[in-house]
Amino acid sequence: MAEKDFDWDDIKLTLAIARTGSLSGAARILEIDQSTVGRRLTALEAFLEATLFQRSKQGVLPTEAGKILIARSGEMERQAAAIFDDVRTAEKKPGGVVRLLGNQWTLDRLVAGGLAQLLEEHQDLEVRLISGRPGASLWHRHPSLAIWFETPPVDRSFQVKLGMVPFAVYRAREISPEVWVSFYDEDNPANSASQFPALRTGGTALVRMRAVDATSLLAAVANGIGLGLLPMCLAERDPRLIRVSVPSEQVNRQLYMHLHPDSLNSPRVQIVTNWLRASFRDLFLP
After folding, report:
1. Which of 54, 63, 181, 254 has a CA between 20 and 30 Å from the CA of residue 126?
2. Among 224, 208, 216, which residue's Cα sits nearest to residue 170?
3. What is the pLDDT along the chain (286 residues), one digit of tens a residue?
């Protein structure tokens, strides 16, 4: 069959199934019904004369042929984004979608700390804030970057230092508890923030609540559930809290930017990364 019969919709279909691991998930992304996804996948497999996905208890998994198509489709998607950027830049109007992933509290800091001005200066830019990890790939339909403390890069992504974020121990102003609340990341349980209560107390800390996000922990500390290690940029000016640790006990955590090599030259990504670097002090220092 002629190559012209293979179209862009086949690329989007392949990547949607791969990224969600199911036909129903792909249907949600593509905004079509699941039966249509199934029919289009069957037609694509017939056209290529290859089985692309196998159903399993874990969902829909790619075959070896499917993995090849997924990899090449991802390359084509990134090339299409680069074409878009090049054309927009030629007209001196960099814009488009940039996905920015991170913990919810770090994303909230961006919104409160100048994102409105960034968008005002770049009218054609759309920033999509996504709370969560990148999964198998940082790239997901659009150029993406992430800000994380201790998360390994994925899919050829790499990390660069953004800055040191100071943390300190706080308690509620009206209550002096002896128990703790603590960070906990199921995907990275050995991170330094999760281990802090045990290290601080020589292994005797009684942790009564754990959460993945600093905003939840701050609320827990403010309501007297326990002592907690909190970002000073969030906690230092909260009238409900008192800092317990002295300056010499301050914990500095390295915040990283995760970038994908295929998006480094994207003007829209450069706009966001430059803003993050320039705004770091206002965003994450007390």
Report:
1. 254
2. 224
3. 445 466 778 888 888 888 888 888 888 878 888 888 888 898 888 888 889 999 887 778 899 998 988 888 877 877 777 777 667 665 567 788 999 999 999 999 999 989 999 999 999 999 999 998 766 566 667 888 999 998 888 777 899 999 999 999 999 998 989 999 999 887 777 778 888 888 888 888 999 999 999 999 999 999 999 999 999 999 999 999 999 998 888 899 999 999 988 788 888 899 999 999 999 999 999 9
Q: Amino acid identity, residue 62?
A: P
**What are the backbone angles phi and psi of residue 163, rounded to the nearest 5°?**
165, 170
Cα–Cα distance for residue pair 76/61, rounded to 1 Å: 21
The structural domains of the chain, with segments of one domain joined by +, span 3-78, 96-157+261-284, 164-254
